[in-house]
Amino acid sequence: MSRLKRTPVLARYHAEGGEVLLLPSHADHLYRLESGLVRLYRLDGDGASATLRYVKPGGYFGEEALTGARRHYFAEAVPPSVVEYIDPAGLDGDDLLQLAASLADALGRVSQALHRQAAKLLRARVAAELLELSHSDLSQRGGDGTSTIRLTHGELANAVGAARETTTKVVGELKRLGAIHTGYGKITVRDERLLRKVADE
Hey, do 9-119 and 122-199 end up sharing a CATH topology, with the first three levels equal? Predict the structure, then answer.
């Protein structure tokens, strides 16, 4: 008789948009995102937030639980999201490969985020953030191929660790360049190639 596969999912949590899921503390669980989008961020001494990376469906976070290390970041559900609590002991070979790939991708994204924060102009950071979010559950693809992100200037400012007024000025610059179009609570990427050029400046 064949053995049933042990499920690694201990529980599922339905989070509201904007809900803080994790605080800096001792890590107890490994998490996998079933749907939605989760932002991992840190706060500086002035209370400004800086995005470390985004977790998209299928991605893991809370990996500190694997080693017993302390977590030094916050996790926030950006839109309404479903998060799975994972038992690492229940992961099979395929799950472990997926976890390893997710963590390798996460390491690269955190490295890029820290580089942007340390070395990039705000305009480049905003452009990079919009590119990232244009391929997430916050975005809706139009028939003309453009991507519209449900995002306010205040939320964008929090994501890049800048003042709202300064971020709004940068958004205006990108709009005048023709890279984006703005509306109430949304930003549409009109020229992704131009936005990538600005992000790498």
Answer: no
Encode pLDDT of 76-98 as tens digits: 999 999 999 988 877 787 877 78
Residue pair 33/58 in contact (Cβ under 8 Å)? The answer is yes
Strand ordering across the sheet containing 147-150: 139-141, 147-150, 186-189, 180-183
C-alpha 118: how far from chain center: 19
Gap between the Cα atoms of 104 and 118, Å rounded: 21
Which of 199, 52, 200 is closest to 127 using CA atoms?
199
The percentage of the chain sitting over the pLDDT mark of 70, rounded to a whole number, equals 89
In the chain, where the domains are located: 9-119, 122-199
Tell me the DSSP string of 1-48: -PPPPPP-EEEEEEEPTT-EEE-SEE---EEEEEES-EEEEEE-TTS-
Tell me, which fold does domain 9-119 have in CATH? Jelly Rolls (2.60.120)
Architecture in CATH of 122-199: Orthogonal Bundle (1.10)
- Predicted structure pTM score: 0.72
Contact 169, 163 (CB under 8 A): no
List the structure tokens of 1: 């008789």
Give the residue among 133, 141, 135, 149 at the shortest CA–CA distance from 188: 149
